[in-house]
């Protein structure tokens, strides 16, 4: 009951467009409140066809700066997830140490493990997102030098109630004139939801993207090492995407296309391939509608699942 009351309060605040920004001078705290609500109508041919209307997600974020060297961000999220024990959770709670715009920062708290890059503007995320998705208690050191960036991080993981910080990863990136190149290493991908393994195994990532005007193309590949508990499998996931910003029926919009695949992942709850095509259109300020088609191919001899999503998204 308490979760329902909190959710109602969050939705009411979003609809009312409440925001608070307290700033007396540069040395006093600054707080910002933002929110998001998404409602989806989905029609699929799975199980002889079905149509559903549902609240997909509600987010409430409070962020700000405590002083010129410390900032924070906290996000509460409701998400319609049949595989989760609770639809309501703290999605992120972090404190960032470092001067805004500086080349060095330290992030402490709970947030997503920064392994997958997940570029692309489709509403439905790619298989690489499912492959690498994981939120944990973490420390992230970020360094920047011109066009180059480096991240090093350590986190706990919850395998076998592990309270020791013995998991780590690193990312390196280059960005200049619209070109982005990156690579990453993670010593334990078995802790992610898709793997769900007590066995620890490493993984690496390579990614690239190029933006020219309103057009962006991107690609990413994630490769895990051998898992003995998965019959020696070495699962991988790849994703390519194309996003084009354009006018859609008299308003700004985005045409997006994404195609992702997995390999050697039969024992994981992931499809073998996923094609997503979407068109979004702004509905005035802070709102948009999205029309999307997805086609997911399973492993084995199962039938592909085709889905059409119509989404209304509002934010403040």
TrEMBL record:
Residues 1-24 form the signal peptide. The keyword Protein biosynthesis does not apply. The keyword ATP-binding does not apply. InterPro entries: Porin_dom_sf. Keywords: Signal. This is LbtU family siderophore porin. It comes from Oceanospirillum sediminis. The lineage of its organism: Bacteria, Pseudomonadati, Pseudomonadota, Gammaproteobacteria, Oceanospirillales.
């Amino acid at each position: 009951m308490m979760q329902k009351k909190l959710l109602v309060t969050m939705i009411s605040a979003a609809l009312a467009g409440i925001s608070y920004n307290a700033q007396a001078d540069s040395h006093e705290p600054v707080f910002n409140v933002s929110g998001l609500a998404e409602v989806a109508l989905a029609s699929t041919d799975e199980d002889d066809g079905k149509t559903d209307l549902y609240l997909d997600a509600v987010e409430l974020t409070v962020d700000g700066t405590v002083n010129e060297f410390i900032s924070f961000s906290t996000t509460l999220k409701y998400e319609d997830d049949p595989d989760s024990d609770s639809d309501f959770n703290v999605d992120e709670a972090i404190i960032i140490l470092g001067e805004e715009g500086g080349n060095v920062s330290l992030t402490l708290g709970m947030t997503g493990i920064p392994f997958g890059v997940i570029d692309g503007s489709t509403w439905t995320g790619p298989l690489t997102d499912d492959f690498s998705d994981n939120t944990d208690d973490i420390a992230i050191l970020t360094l920047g030098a011109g066009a180059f960036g480096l991240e090093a991080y350590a986190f706990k993981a919850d395998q076998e109630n592990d309270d020791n910080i013995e998991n780590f990863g690193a990312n390196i990136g280059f960005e200049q004139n619209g070109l982005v190149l990156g690579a990453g290493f993670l010593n334990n991908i078995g802790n992610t939801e898709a793997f769900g393994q007590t066995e620890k195994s490493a993984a690496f990532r390579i990614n690239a993207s190029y933006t020219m005007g309103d057009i962006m193309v991107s690609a990413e590949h994630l490769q895990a090492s051998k898992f003995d508990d998965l019959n020696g499998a070495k699962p991988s996931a790849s994703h390519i995407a194309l996003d084009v910003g354009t006018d859609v029926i008299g308003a700004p919009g985005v045409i997006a296309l994404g195609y992702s695949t997995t390999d050697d992942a039969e024992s994981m709850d992931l499809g073998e391939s996923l094609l997503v095509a979407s068109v979004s259109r702004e509905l005035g300020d802070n709102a948009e509608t999205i029309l999307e088609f997805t086609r997911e191919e399973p492993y084995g001899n199962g039938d592909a699942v085709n889905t059409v999503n119509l989404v209304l998204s509002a934010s403040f």
